[in-house]
């Protein structure tokens, strides 16, 4: 990410949160801003050049930021354990004041993995405050394959090189990793399911998933399509959980055409 990184301060949970962010893409775009919501272990820097290249290629302006607990945003205190509603709280309590602070109205939300779930939750709760959603490899319920690979990530963090690789992208890497890993591996999280909440989505919605996604089956995006009548689904061949790394050109083409083809906003 070569764009200038700035810091916004918002109030949340009785105190201030510092959120790092950067503007990317076409500053003069007439489309609504595209807000990028990263994966469970992601951050602003872990997107690398994809948001900028995506926005430049499609004539869009984008906002990239690190959610609370990630990157150089405020870290999760070591004693704080996230509850099963942590994605709901990001969607309902953290994202709205950040958008207000930055003067962003009715954005497109481009979310990956946990970020895709957060985008869906926001669109369902605030249907008149979003122009559309691109949900990439989102989770709407918990599957055994997801838990198995999150358990594998735990082992790789403790005994492999995952911690060293993530440390390049997070000021407090243990905060970022264990905030995510502990709640996903909590037995109480097995019942997490947001499918019944999605029928409030009325904006344009594109759900994208790789056919070789190691963190979820295609039932995730197919489930979205059964609930949201207007939802479109795209399945990418030879692609795993991170299409912006595995198939960036195809992802950019499909998602960019969807956004610009919908006029940049819902009616």
TrEMBL record:
<dbReference type="InterPro" id="IPR050266">
    <property type="entry name" value="AB_hydrolase_sf"/>
</dbReference>
<dbReference type="InterPro" id="IPR000073">
    <property type="entry name" value="AB_hydrolase_1"/>
</dbReference>
<feature type="domain" description="AB hydrolase-1">
    <location>
        <begin position="32"/>
        <end position="152"/>
    </location>
</feature>
<dbReference type="Pfam" id="PF00561">
    <property type="entry name" value="Abhydrolase_1"/>
</dbReference>
<dbReference type="InterPro" id="IPR029058">
    <property type="entry name" value="AB_hydrolase_fold"/>
</dbReference>
<dbReference type="GO" id="GO:0016787">
    <property type="term" value="F:hydrolase activity"/>
</dbReference>
<keyword id="KW-0378">Hydrolase</keyword>
<protein>
    <submittedName>
        <fullName>Alpha/beta hydrolase</fullName>
    </submittedName>
</protein>
<dbReference type="GO" id="GO:0016020">
    <property type="term" value="C:membrane"/>
</dbReference>
